[in-house]
Specification:
Distance between the termini: 81 Å
Strand content: 5-15%
Helix content: 55-70%
Strand order of the largest sheet: 1-7-6-5-2-3-4-8-9-10
Shape: rod-shaped
Structural class: alpha+beta
Number of helices: 11
Length: about 350
């Protein structure tokens, strides 16, 4: 500290001499420093330090205060310590401000990408994962009709069909295209695909795939009988990882992976029009399912559905593959003797809230 005091004391003596012999130059330098001090907090701290030192020197020069060189050096050391503290605080504040500005810049870039992605008039736009469920529910709220093409239809059973059933003032056309639960090879290949992709591992069992499809068919038949939902059901010969959910307002295209984005196409675009036409044309050539309409098979209260209701309804369901003749749904691998109808009845309304 003593060495520092000696250095500062030499500064004080030099400054005192400068003020005595070159007062105008010193005052001009102070004015220049004062001008620069206005540019930042660090400059302001510099200005304060200089002003205090200059004031002490002037007071000592004109004998207003009688200060020794040692006292002035100690005061200067204190002021310099204060100055260094201000500089450190200013540096931290500048770092925080820089981080905040970088965050704002990143947000602006994200917004720019979203604007580019979802540009006004776009025919197809991507939807982030966290928006998919909300967009699907928006489509349901405004739906006058519904088209679905997909794999197992668990969301149809738990959400889509109950929502469409709330419409009581008119019929709601419901076009559904799914896999044939009686096609053992198709169910097995789809189960293997689900197992490889590791989405809903429980459906990696072919029999589980079959049971979920049968439960979906019963659910559609129940809503078709007890509500204004008017189902048209067809069987697909091949499976696809793509799932289509379509209302009058738009189309949402998803895949089994919940971490992937979805595609949304508004109803006024060519993509929506093309997909809707494809689904409607396909339904004319695909095997058509004829659902039963016996009241005894469909209790008014869905919570009262049991294995017997499901067994009777599925036994009465037929499939027309072409020409005037139909064949029973429950044949071969999906023969009634191979099925656990209590499990299927529980799956038919699984996930429904009310």
């Amino acid at each position: 500290m003593r060495g520092l005091n000696e250095v500062v004391a030499s500064w004080v003596l030099a400054a005192r001499t400068e003020i005595i012999y070159h007062p105008l130059m010193a005052l001009s330098g102070i004015r220049n420093l004062a001008t620069e001090a206005k540019q930042s907090p660090a400059d302001a701290a510099t200005y304060i330090v200089i002003a205090v030192i200059a004031a002490l020197m002037l007071l000592d020069l004109f004998n207003v205060l009688s200060l020794s060189v040692d006292a002035l050096s100690k005061a200067t050391v204190f002021i310099l310590i204060f100055f260094l503290g201000v500089m450190a605080a200013t540096k931290r504040a500048a770092s925080k401000q820089r981080t905040a500005l970088e965050g704002v810049a990143s947000g602006v870039n994200d917004l720019k990408r979203e604007i580019e992605l979802r540009g006004v008039g776009a025919q197809v736009v991507e939807i982030p994962q966290y928006e998919i469920n909300g967009r699907l529910r928006e489509l349901l709220r405004s739906a006058n009709s519904w088209h679905f093409r997909g794999g197992l239809g668990s969301w149809q059973r738990s959400t889509a069909l109950p929502a469409l059933a709330e419409v009581r003032s008119r019929d709601v056309p419901y076009v559904m295209q799914v896999l044939n639960p009686a096609d053992e090879d198709l169910c097995r290949r789809y189960a293997e695909y689900r197992a490889r992709s590791r989405h809903r591992p429980s459906t990696g069992d072919p029999e589980k795939v079959r049971d979920e499809l049968l439960s979906l068919l019963y659910a559609v038949a129940w809503y078709g009988y007890r509500t204004r939902v008017n189902p048209i059901v067809s069987f697909l010969p091949l499976f696809s990882p793509l799932r289509y959910d379509m209302s009058d307002a738009g189309l949402i295209l998803t895949v089994p992976n919940p971490d992937e984005r979805a595609l949304y196409a508004p109803s006024n675009g060519w993509h929506y029009t093309g997909v809707r036409d494809e689904l409607e044309q396909a339904s004319r050539g695909l095997p058509r399912v004829t659902l039963p309409s016996e009241e005894s098979m469909f209790p008014r209260d869905w919570t009262a559905v049991d294995a017997g209701h499901v067994r009777d309804a599925l036994n009465a369901t037929t499939v027309r593959t072409g020409g005037p003749f139909s064949q029973p749904l429950l044949t071969s691998w999906a023969d009634a003797q191979n099925l656990d109808f209590s499990v299927i009845s529980q799956l038919s309304f699984a996930g429904r809230e009310n």
